[in-house]
Amino acid sequence: MIIATTLFAILMAATFLLLAGAIAGLRHAATLSGRSEDVLAASNRLERLIVEMQSGARGYEITRNEIFLRPWKAARAALPAETAEFRRLAAEINTDQAKRADTIARAATSYLDDFSVPLVTALQEGRQPSLPPAQAVSEGQRRVAALRSDFDRFVSVQSSLTTRYEQRSMKASRRAMAAAGAAAVSSIALALLFTSYLTRALVRPVRRASIMAADLARGELGVRMPETSLGEIGLLERRFNTMAHSLETSHHKLCRIAEEQAALRRVATLVARAVSPHETFGTVAAELGRILGADFVVISRFEPDRMETVVGSWKAEERAEAAPPVGSSWSLEGRSLESSVARTGRPARMTDYQRATSGIGVWARTRGVRSGTGCPVVVEGRLWGVVIAFTTAEEPQPEGIEARMIDYTELVGTAIANAESRAKLTAARARLVAASDETRRRIERDLHDGAQQRLVSLGLELRAAETSVPDGQSVLSERLSTTAEGLSDVLEDLQEISRGLHPAILSKGGLRPAIKALARRAGVPVELDLNVDRRFDERLEVAVYYIVAEAVANATEHASASFVRIRLDAGDDEIGLRVEDDGNAGTTPGPGDPGIIGLKDRVEALGGTVGVESPSAAGTALVIRIPLWPGRSSRYGA
């Protein structure tokens, strides 16, 4: 018994040592993996700051618009702290990564101090930068490309280290399995000498530990051991369970972060594509509802009269009740979460909707909502609205939910600011086009009332003088007749110019007769398909007329076309125009084409779109779509 006990003690001691080493290896690997995630996240943030500085400086250099300096200034302010954090985290990995991080940090600081700040400062002070614009762009791209290359090398090395940590964890798990297996086999041999108590106390717990280690190695993080043993075996069971719980928590956290980042990328893609704010609002509400596990999500815009208007909403699929409809207005008066946000401009919570008295507060109470969290939407420094996540669960929403909502509210603010900028640009274009049309009308009116009438009078006087010439003065009579005919030709030319500036037939009869008259004057045959039976807004008719005139002129003068087809359709919501020719094809007019630029400005000022189709050997087609009511638009940021 003494010899068996000694052998058993030696065997179990060795097994426990191997298991302890495996546990330590697993914990160390988990720690290193966590550090790897932190340093990769810091690298991503620092790289994003560099890109924001580059894009902000480049946008300001092109437009001189201070709005592009806001992200640049924010990135510049955050760069020192992010650089220090990146160095600190890299130093915890190893010396080589710390050196790479120092190199990246110095390069980022150099890019800021030696290039970006001098460039922006020179532009703000109205001085010529030290580098010409083209060289400045090239130098900035070169520096950023070098930084991205350094980031890629850093991330690649860190990924290799992470893989190495995982392999080390697998080795430790295999050692633990081997040790447990050896202990099990030896325990069976020694079971003839020991009592069943020793079997139950040692063999079975060790076997459970080995099975759990294998399950953890395969990624089954939900397994647990029953904590029924005494002494060191019981401690081992508790440690294994603690380790499994820690790994499972970390895994869920990483999955949640990945899911949130994917949702943010989807929303950011919509904002970058400049889709309508309504579509962005709906997407943000849906993504937030799924990420936060809410029952309802509402996005509201604050109105000046203490009202709020719902611009986006979402409800969980299992909820039978509908969310507040988009476009509905609710009172802010009374006790509510949204009124608190409107008053303070800061995130707020409400955990008892039994006392809510505002419009949406009463709606939430009738739907069984128990708590809600709201974050403000800020557009260019002003409070625009609020995003609220409601839940009917008895437990209050977890801490930190406000921070998870802020990224989405910032994207909503960006989408609204972009929509406002596009609306201002469209209004400016419309004013320019209107001024141009008014100038044409004034010139046409001046020509008609002034020069044309004067030429008619002079022609009549010459004809009268011709009839009063005495007989025998044939030379004088011929000269007067020739002069009168010349005046008549000049008058016809002037009338043609007047019709080109602003044809009277367009003002009197509309698009159908005006385009027909334009087709009759064209130098090539023109086929017309005009599905228009009513009058439209004057700006719209003038725009369509000049688009057709420009397209016909391009086809005859530049494309050497022998045939032009014009199709005009008027629907309930928009006008569709298609001008085709059989001229020289294969080359699409570029952005610098003056004719295309003029057409785009006129069409986009009315809220329309311009498309050019020019396939090889198939002529050219100009496709225009213009809404019938370009002045009607939604209020996104008033």
TrEMBL record:
CDD domains associated with the record: HAMP, HATPase_UhpB-NarQ-NarX-like
Recorded hits in InterPro entries, A to Z, give: CHASE3, GAF, GAF-like_dom_sf, HAMP_dom, HATPase_C_sf, Sensor_HK_TwoCompSys, Sig_transdc_His_kin_sub3_dim/P
Q: Quick one: where's region Disordered?
A: 578-597
Q: Which residues form a coiled coil?
A: none
The transmembrane segments are 176-198
What domain of life does the native source organism fall in?
Bacteria
Catalytic activity field = ATP + protein L-histidine = ADP + protein N-phospho-L-histidine
**Membrane among keywords:** yes
* EC number from the UniProt entry: 2.7.13.3
Q: Where is the composition biased (Low complexity)?
A: 584-597
Annotated ranges, domain HAMP: 200-252
Q: Which UniProt keywords apply?
A: ATP-binding, Kinase, Membrane, Nucleotide-binding, Phosphoprotein, Transferase, Transmembrane, Transmembrane helix, Two-component regulatory system
This chain's protein is named: histidine kinase
